[in-house]
Write a structure and sequence with these properties.
Helix content is about 80%, strand content about 0%. It has nine helices and no strands. It is globular and about 50 Å long.
Length: about 240
């Protein structure tokens, strides 16, 4: 629970910093993205997939595929903010569409984090929360950068950022409502949400790793942070 709350606060604070007092050097964002992507890959393969296929033996693959395809669809509108692309939009309609797609991404990934609040369903929720928050911090920064490039005032950009962060909490709340409505299948429903989220995060994390540098060449710094991320995921 502490990881969840702290991650949201840090994400909001980091995005706000880039709105109101942006640092001159932001190359470290890509290092953080790479480390978070590596951590996610590690926990997905070692912690999450085995239990997901145990609980949903016949449907896990389908749910993962739906999540994976959903992220492809969302990125068609979000323009890749989820993995560090901050292209400003020249019209309000394009900005709103990108923002809504990103909020749907945040809402879905917040759903399985309801297990941190309810204490039901997922035994590795702490690792999952850590991975999602490592991913959310650089995404919040990228969103803040994109909003300013689009010509929004700093105050309006902060409101957009706050709504994005709140969508994760909204996703957790939605999952808890579903759990109360279908109490007998609360654990199974949690794993359906988890499968969708992991399908999304699998697409995002692999994209981050493969696009971590130009010409698909990894710099020594990125190799180092990817190694650290993998090691932390394997040890968690």
């Amino acid at each position: 629970m502490i990881t969840y709350i702290l991650g949201l606060i840090v994400s909001l604070a980091a995005g706000s910093l880039f709105i109101f007092n942006p640092p001159k050097n932001n190359k470290w964002i890509y290092l953080l993205l790479s480390a978070g992507g590596a951590y996610l890959i590690a926990i997905i393969f070692t912690h999450i997939l085995p239990e997901l296929f145990e609980v949903l033996p016949e449907k896990a693959g389908l749910v993962l595929l739906i999540g994976f395809l959903l992220q492809i669809l969302l990125e068609n509108y979000s323009k890749g903010i989820e993995h560090g692309h901050a292209h400003g939009s020249h019209n309000n309609q394009g900005l709103i569409i990108s923002f809504v797609a990103l909020c749907i991404h945040a809402l879905v990934e917040g759903m399985p984090l309801a297990s941190l609040i309810s204490g039901n369903g997922i035994g590795f929720n702490q690792q999952l929360a850590t991975g999602i928050m490592l991913h959310k911090v650089p995404v919040a920064i990228t969103l803040a950068t994109m909003l300013l490039k689009s010509g929004l005032s700093k105050n309006k950009a902060f409101i957009f950022l706050f709504v994005f962060i709140a969508c994760t909490v909204l996703g957790s709340g939605l999952q808890m409502v579903i759990g109360h409505q279908f109490a007998e299948q609360a654990e199974v429903n949690m794993f359906y949400s988890l499968g969708l989220t992991i399908g999304i995060l699998f697409h995002v994390s692999t994209t981050i790793l493969f696009e971590s540098s130009d010409n698909h060449k990894l710099t020594p710094k990125r190799i180092a942070v990817i190694t650290i991320g993998l090691a932390l995921g394997l040890m968690s």
